[in-house]
Amino acid sequence: MRCCGPSGAVRLIVVPLAALAVLAGCRGDNEQRIDLAVIGRPADLAERGARLGVAGQLVQAATAQGLVALDAQGQVVPALADRWIVTDDGDSYIFRLRDGTWPDGTPLSGQTVARALRQALDGLRGTPLGLDLADLAEVRVMTDRVLELRLARPVPELLQLLAQPELALRRRERGSGPLEPAASAAGTLRLVLIPPTRLGLPALDPADPRPASLQLRALSARAATEAFARGELSLVFGGRFADLPQAQAVAGLSRRALQVDPAAGLFGLAVVGAEGPLAAPEFREALAMAIDRDALAGAMGLTGWTPTTRIVPLSVPGSGGALTLPARAGAEPAAPVQAAAPAWTTAPLDLRQAEAAARVARWTGRSGRPLASLRLAWPSGPGADAVFERLRTDFAAIGVTLTRVAAEAPADLRLLDLVARYPGPLWYLNQLSCPARRTICSTAADARLAEARAERDPARRLAMLAAVEAQMSAAAVFLPLGPPVRWSLVRPGTPGFAPNTVAFHPLPPLVEQTD
């Protein structure tokens, strides 16, 4: 049985003792205020539900807690549960709840937390995150302070999943902080620390500095970067490749201001239309073959950005090379499964584009009509402009006209730009499955994915997932380009922020006392 919980190396974010932001602005009554912005629309700050954007995730994780949470480094730390153990077979996680109450005064108990967790899980049904949690079979109350989560099979990434903002728990629409809204206006939300005594916790020491408030605004990328350049903001969250040039221009004033997360995930073109030539896997594969990914890396304008042709990156454990499916007792050994990139990736670009052009010509000849242009739903922004022009040029080289439409408009192809919630092949394959509804999909690959999910043997499961990746790659429902880009602007010396692999930057650490 493995035990986890707080230690001297872990800082609890559930009870920030005090706040002192180096660059917080001074207000009346000696109030310290940290001004922040997240790139998005004003309405995003009020988002609730199972599919949250960056602003909604930030607010949800600041005003409510799950059993566990993510710290500034993207690591799992205690939240409503102050410790936990995992059984040796991996089928059960047992959580001990901390002392305290909900904001309405109700005791924090196994019954109330279990009810809130079940409601949150019900709300995730039919979402990609719900697929990741599909093996969570039962939420069981063991005692007034102890919960057990029983699994249908081991889920090594369960703690990372439980730490997601969508699993921050609420009772009667109110979360347990550690922050709460103090005021809001169109596109602006002021967050303050909930007095610990309201949560059944010890009071702050009057000798400690007064906790800072956070003033969070939702702004366009241009407005946010300009406000940062004027010194009005300490941090800007939620940057993507589309607006990277604007951040780079601002960061030129201070090279340390631009912070790029070392994130992994999916960044590429999702095929969402299955009419005409896109109904044929060989035509979809021709589009993937045509892309000059080395030139695309130059268009991205980010040193170290590495293009890929694979759905599951090589950096993900269990994703690389040929895997042999271990034989069951009495059975013949299975042939190795090649999980590597498609065979055409080793060919020079000119040969790839020639083969792709031949496939386009064959389809045009068989159909007897000219090939209609393909609509690509694409974001706005200078970085997006540069990458689109690169794609348009590559597609034109094989006889395909690419037309840009708004990000939410009807389209044949759509940008898929997602950060992985945990480092495992299953996350990537779940995103491209039929229930996720992100792309056209392969029902045959989905059937094999279900078999892989049900497999308990870790080695067999990895090999089965590799086979699913190979099948999805052959179906060409998604055209990989490289890793997602996530950036923030951070005033040098601002505490409580760190680039991390999940590209999520919780707000509570910004108002923790620094040692």
UniProtKB/TrEMBL annotation:
Any one of the GO CC terms: cell envelope
Keyword Transport: yes
Keywords, alphabetical: Signal, Transport
Annotated signal sequence range: 1-21
Localisation per UniProt entry: Periplasm
GO molecular function, one term: peptide transmembrane transporter activity
Domain of life: Bacteria
InterPro entries: SBP_5, SBP_5_dom
Entry keyword annotation includes Transport: yes
Pfam (any one): SBP_bac_5
Any one of the GO BP annotations: peptide transport
Sequence ranges assigned to domain Solute-binding protein family in this UniProt record: 75-169, 209-403
Family statement: Belongs to the bacterial solute-binding protein 5 family.
Protein name (Swiss-Prot/TrEMBL): ABC transporter substrate-binding protein
